[in-house]
Amino acid sequence: MAKRDTPRKRTSTRKPESNENAKTTDLRRNTTDAADQRLTTDQGLPINDNQNSLKAGLRGPTLLEDHILRDKIMHFDHERIPERVVHARGSGAHGYFQVYEPLAKWTKAGFLNDPARRTPVFVRFSTVAGSRGSTDLARDVRGFAVKFYTDEGIYDLVGNNIPVFFIQDAMTFPDLIHSVKPEAHNEMPQAASAHETFWDFISLMPESMHMIMWAMSDRAIPRSLRMMEGFGVHTFRFVNAKGESSFVKFHWKPLLGVHSVAWDEATKISGKDPDFHRRDLWEAIENGDYPEWELGVQIVPAKDEHKYPFDLLDPTKLIPEELVPVQRVGKMTLNRNPDNFFAETEQVAFDPGHLVPGIDLSNDPLLQGRLFSYPDTQLSRLGSVNFNEIPINRPLAPVHNNHRDGHMRQTINKNHINYEPNSLGGGCPFQAAMKNGGSTSFPEPMEDMKVRAKSEKFMDHFSQATLFYRSQSTPEQNHIINALRFELAKLDTAAVRERMIGLLAYVDHDLATRVAEAFDLEVPAVVEPLNHSIPADTSPDDVQPYEEKPVVERSEALSMANTFKEGIRTRRVGILADMDGIRDATALKAALEAEGAMVKVIAPTLAKGVDQTLMTSTSVVFDAIAVVNQEPWLHYPDAKDFVCDAHRHAKAIALIGNADQLFDAWGMAEDKEGPGMVHGRTGKAVINAFIDAIAAHRHWAREKDPVYATKA
Ligand code: HDD
Q: pLDDT tens digits, residue range 554-578?
């Protein structure tokens, strides 16, 4: 066989990068794109035969001396590193952040004070419970971790798409994660909380009730990583140049609005395209539809620390936007896909302790425990204290210190002065004065007893769970009820289910009743808020006044029903059309694409103008569908599934020509009318009505699943 000694053509369709950020992050890329690339060993020896091992004769055994074979196999054998113990399944992207106006009043952080500066970022989105290869559409919290490569060093905002957490203290994190991960005896189920050990733990942890409301809501099955909010969760501190501190909660607000899928749809997407979110993010960036989020801050002046009925240090509580509005202070844009998944998305190492001057920690006991966990995890996952030297983790700011050696050290330090203070090295590297950017911790006054306990306000476990539930629209409440019915129905132990109904009764009695109906259980009467008692050895001075009632009864910001619903940019639309309907389909496609939608024409065969065959397609990967004509769909079971699923999942549906007769033929005559259903010929009126219906995202009012019905 002839040997290749010429380079193959690069086939990437990637658009050339033109922004500043690309230039800076390129510094960390190992580019080996030279035109003439000969295949070599790791030592640089050109390889002449990459197909045949070295043998004693044409039919003889392989020789141990074949170092090319041994090197290749040995490297391959070690290609996997331990996956993250949580958040193993993730997708990343590069981009940049820019602040709108200087935030000098609150923080001296350089990247939050210079509107002209584009700070490069790398973001990794993730699910929590599943393994690296698990489905994207699991019901789960989504990680939302942002690494800012600032001029003052790395800043990591390692948050989630839910603003609160299950537990209040890092001490119980391993228990929480053990309980939600696949069960220890049989490694089932994968990427799912619907199992015995999780609900056993939760039913004994009333503090988790607020987060459970979020996790059972549609927030836990996002439509797209580009359409979910992000939250720093904990209260952090801002510190300004005068040394004054205020408390801050961080938010990411997606400019496309916050949207989710239906649960039945999520389970079907998991089968049809388990990479649905990863693919969606990748394709949007490749198409130049760069995802954007505004950074929001809620600022609480230091003097107001104890003003609220909840403790700012309690990560199971949010600050209702009605009490402290979210101020949008800057924008993050993701504009470049990683070049190499392993080198970037897998090896990126976040740490809530990566801070810059002007942003500091609070005493939230969950946050405090995280500060130990992340670097410790990196050590076992990436194998060395030198993980900071991996290109994706390397700061763009210069690094000078006396760290030396260790596994896989990359830096070659060129002198022997590896201590401080020193005189032989001219005192370098020297400590930075505060005025020159030297970081200092906020000098919070502190004098107290050592205790293993929580402040009194942490004991209110239900007010905000109730606030969240009551702030949801009716369809959102129905979805929470249905999710709880689904999850609890998966349990074998009746006592766990009963304990959960008991806890739900403290959140909302109607909620508990409607969940309990599915199990023929009685809801216990709620006598008084179920709170832990204060430990006997707590000083009376430490007992804070505690109010039972939430200050805010309903919060609009907590419901996705109130999200942004204009425009159809990046929405996916599938049009069923055979050759007789191709003209209508092409016209509709052009009109929707002009509005920024991503449209596929689907037919029984891959003829001219057709993008996908019916056999390879499914409506669950589209946001809206159109059907042109009744024929030939009447005779295709796949077409019936396609349309029925779209209808059940409350999507916008356009029935073009006589396609509405399909609904009569399929025994769904009454379903062809209703919100989000558009009929007619492909004229302007129909197209505009369809665009409005797609923009609304979902038409939940159409749902009529009997399981939602309340007992008379
Ligand atoms: Fe964590 C990863 C978010 C509590 C311990 N966490 C990890 C990631 C995110 C979060 C987004 C993935 C980062 C990436 O993409 O690489 N974690 C959170 C949030 C929490 C939280 C928002 C609560 C508010 N985590 C938490 C606690 C502990 C940990 C209380 C331990 C005491 N988390 C870890 C970890 C991970 C991690 C085991 C696994 C991989 C890694 O850190 O780098 O250290």
A: 999 999 999 999 999 999 999 999 9
- Give CB contacts under 8 A, 24+ apart, made by 597-600: 597/568, 597/569, 597/570, 597/571, 597/572, 597/573, 597/694, 598/283, 598/287, 598/570, 598/571, 598/572, 598/573, 599/572, 599/573, 599/574, 599/575, 600/572, 600/573, 600/574, 600/575
Q: Could you read off the pLDDT of 173-207 as tens digits, one per residue?
A: 999 999 999 999 999 999 999 999 999 999 999 99
Token output for 166? 């299950």
Rounded CA separation 170/175 (Å)? 10
The residue type of 81 is I
Please give the pLDDT value at position 708.
56
7-16, 163-172, 292-301, range with the lowest pLDDT: 7-16
Q: Best of 81, 83, 84 to mutate for ligand 1, by most ligand atoms within 8 A of CB?
A: 84
Nearest CA to ligand 1 atom 30: 170
pLDDT at 473: 96
Structure tokens at 519: 């199990």
Residue pair 150/96 in contact by the 8 Å Cβ criterion: no
Which phi-psi region, left, alpha or beta, contains residue 676 (left: φ > 0; alpha: ψ -120 to 50)?
left
User: How does 40-54 read in b/e, with b if 16+ C-beta sit within 10 Å?
Assistant: eeeeeeeeeeeeeee
CB burial class (10 A; 0-12, 13-18, 19+) of residue 282? middle
Whether 628 and 659 have beta carbons less than 8 Å apart is answered as yes
Q: How far is the CA of 422 from the centre of ligand 1 (A)?
A: 38
Q: CA 379, 384, 387 angle in degrees (round to 5)?
A: 85
**What is the C-alpha to C-alpha distance for residues 665 and 435, in angstroms, rounded to an integer?**
77
**Which structure tokens are listed for 253?**
């607000």
Q: Which residues line ligand 1 (CB under 6 A)?
A: 84-87, 90, 124, 126, 143, 145, 158-160, 165, 170, 173, 233-234, 315, 348-350, 366, 369-370, 373-374, 377-378
Query: Is 712 a residue whose pLDDT tops 80?
Result: no
Which residues have a catalytic role annotated? 87, 160
Residue 193 near residue 220 (C-beta atoms within 8 A): no
Tokens representing residue 479 in the block: 């979805």
- List, in order, residues 6 or more apart from 606 with CB less than 8 Å away: 612, 613
Residue nearest to atom 23 of ligand 1 (CA): 165
Reference 213, options 455, 575, 479; nearest CA is 479
Residue 626 CB contacts under 8 Å (≥ 6 apart), including other chains:
573, 574, 575, 576, 577, 585, 588, 653, 654, 655, 656, 690
Integer-rounded Cα radius of gyration of the chain: 28
Does residue 25 carry a pLDDT above 50? no
CB 167 within 8 A of CB 173: yes
Distance CA 320, CA 555 (A): 7
Q: Residue 82 carries which side chain, given as an amino acid letter?
A: P
